[in-house]
Amino acid sequence: MTSTQARRMRRPVLQAAIDAGARCTKADPDLFFRADGEPPATWQAQRAEAIGFCHGCPVRAACEELALRGTATATSASTTWSAAVVPATSWSPSASSRPSA
């Protein structure tokens, strides 16, 4: 099995775990997305509340993995995580592989 085949097989497993146990499914979806023209201070407060749903979530690792894959099939929690957290962390493979100072 190639690594590409393995990744394709893992996506449905991750999505099923997220759909079954994500804490954010009961939250208002608008909480996780910045509105056009929203002031930075307002968004930072809203973003902090959104990220609060992630703390202690039993499927956070699966959600993060699926969100960072950037797959179009990601729904629900992984979309939430990528909307609220990924843009703020500026994650990239090259940045994560650099040694910290």
Describe the structure.
By secondary structure, the chain is an all-alpha fold. It has one domain (3-85). The protein has six helices and no strands. The longest helix is centred in the first third of the chain and has 19 residues, at 3-21. The termini are far apart. The model is unreliable at 88-101 (pLDDT under 50).
Q: Which terms summarize this structure?
A:
101 residues; elongated; disordered C terminus
Secondary-structure topology with pairs:
Layout lengths: L2 H19 L18 H13 L7 H10 L7 H8 L1 H4 L3 H4 L5
Number of strands: 0
Rg is 15 Å
- Strand residue content: under 5%
Give the count of structural domains: 1
Distance between the termini: 38 Å
Structural class, from secondary structure content? mainly alpha
Average per-residue pLDDT, rounded, comes to 74
How many helical elements? 6
Shape: elongated
Helix-strand sequence: HHHHHH
Q: Helix fraction?
A: 55-70%
For the largest beta-sheet, the strand count, sense and barrel status come to:
none
Low-confidence stretches: 88-101
Describe the structure concisely for a colleague:
The protein is mainly α. The protein is 57% helix and 0% strand.
